[in-house]
Amino acid sequence: MLDYAITGGTVVDGTGAPGFLGDVGIRDGRIAEIVAAGAAGGGSLGEPAASTFDAEGLMVAPGIVDVHTHYDAQLYWDPYATPSNLHGVTTVFGGNCGFTLAPLRAEDGDYIRRMMARVEGMAIPALEAGAPWDWESFGEYLDGLEGRVGVNAGFLVGHCALRRYVMGPDAVEREATEHEVAEMVEVLHESITAGGLGLSTTRSSTHMDGDERPVASRLASEDELVALCTAVGAHDGTTLEGIVEGCLRGFSDEEANLLARVSAAANRPINWNVLTVTGRHRDKALHQLLPSRRAREVGGRVIALMMPVHAEMNMSLGTFCALWLIPGWSATLSLPFEKKAAALRDPARREEMLGKAKGTPFSRLTHFATYHIGDTGNPANADLEGRMVGDIARERGQDPFECLCEIAIADEFRTVLWPTPGDDGDDDWALRRELWDDPDVMLGGSDAGAHLDRMMGSSYPTRFLADCLRGRQLVPLERAVQMMTDIPAQLYGLRERGRLEPGFHADVFVFDPETVSSGPARRVWDLPGNSLRLTASSTGVRQVLVNGVVTVADGESTGALPGTVLRSGRDTQTFAAR
């Protein structure tokens, strides 16, 4: 007898093939049978099921695979990986951008927590109260999650934690010695043998630790990085992920060559986050694929991650966000309240700040007329919530930046600001659609679990499906599903996941094509320590199954924990660069 049957739905199997009416039978956590309506034998499953879900009028697809998350800590207090699970995600990969919580020496716990708070926007009270911090090795960290997760979760080994483990405080002071590199290689071998999926690293100047110093991996020599990547290639089922300065600002020849070199050394693909494009800067977008072209010349593979929808993201003049990354802005925005207020009241200072933004990739962030006011901290500003800064500025006879600063100062810099995307035109989406077909571009980059009070990227699957079905309709539904399931599953070498196919693990996403979508991003204080995060509900998500068990029903978590801690070699196979 089957454990579960999903009957009468339109099966979209993840391969890109046209959907078909059919039934899906599940036994022992795997897909036992798929029968198309009208097939020989009457089109019904060959045996009865203990439970059946009627999917008439619904789509039955593989679970979504999100390759770029930071759920490393959150899974300890939230085993369901909310809100990703509510949007059809059944598999997540953490340990990205060079940042993991292991390996860890007991004396470094505070440093790692402060680093994660700074680089990934995780609240320190949540980190302190939500996880036990009782592991040392990478294997012990994975063991702590075993049997208590509601999604499948795999983790890369972060270069920063690895370096800190071997070098201690010197990790942020200098390059490693030959002996230290050899020790890092040995610890990396141990971490991957225990289940780590590969290595992640960063060389981006935006990544500073809790002491406002460059994170450890930024001090690594290229030889150190190549040695570590070579070690990754000695293990089955591994991959690489990395961030360099050019991911945001445009790749230099040296960076393109480095990404190509490390991929070739490991014979593994390396992916980077995140490719952003605008139709008016087509050449710049295409230039961002330079590392991919270089890699193919030397036997490597470089993959650019690209979001299929805009991530909902807010800003603030009071707490760290992308505005602080504009050259020269952090010196003003990090001042104490009175000094910062005085500086932002000064027309000359505001003009100087805007001047420093011009000609940089961050200049688009200073289009303050298009920002909407979110939550405010002063009752006198309450009637401004939801309004556009440009409209308020015109009423007051001010320029938009002056108006915004006045509002924020009155709120003691607690104002939540919501930018309107400036790259939302037909030309922008036409270029994105073109790039989605490039073999070196893959959908992803949600950053789910990070920047918790600033960004909501985890709802991208339902928002993209809604756009494909009822919005811009840039790609057929079958192609959209394939790009979020089978393609990332193959890149990460997931064994028997990413498709609906007999013998594959039963990770299944059942949704209503008429209503599938995401609710708006909203602020909640539900993290440990009463910390803030953004979340979003889903609509039209009827069921999500992980390994054959229903984990989401009608948009709500069921409380089931059937997820697998994915381990390299056992749960993954090698996807080679060449």
Describe the structure.
- By secondary structure, this protein is of the alpha/beta class.
- Strands 1, 2, 3, 4, 5, 19, 24, 25 and 26 form a 9-stranded mixed sheet that branches. It has a 6-stranded parallel sheet with strand order 9-10-11-12-13-17.
- The protein folds into 2 domains: 64-311 and 424-495, Metal-dependent hydrolases (TIM Barrel); 315-418, no CATH class.
- The radius of gyration is 24 Å and the shape is globular.
- Strand 21 and strand 22 form a beta hairpin.
- 31% of the residues lie in helices and 19% in strands.
- The protein is built from 20 helices and 26 strands.
- The two termini are 43 Å apart.
Task: Give the structure's gist in a few sentences.
This protein is of the alpha/beta class.
State which percent range the strand residues make up: 15-25%
Shape, principal axes of CA atoms:
globular
How many beta-strand runs? 26
Largest sheet: 9 strands, mixed
Fraction in helix: 25-40%
**Overall number of domains:** 2
* Poorly predicted tracts of residues: none
- Write down the CATH class of the largest domain: Alpha Beta
Radius of gyration: 24 Å
- The CATH homology group name of the largest domain: Metal-dependent hydrolases
Structural class: alpha/beta
| CATH architecture name of the largest domain | Alpha-Beta Barrel
- At the fold tier of CATH, the topology name of the largest domain is TIM Barrel
Specify the oligomeric state. Answer: single chain
Give the terminus-to-terminus CA distance. 43 Å
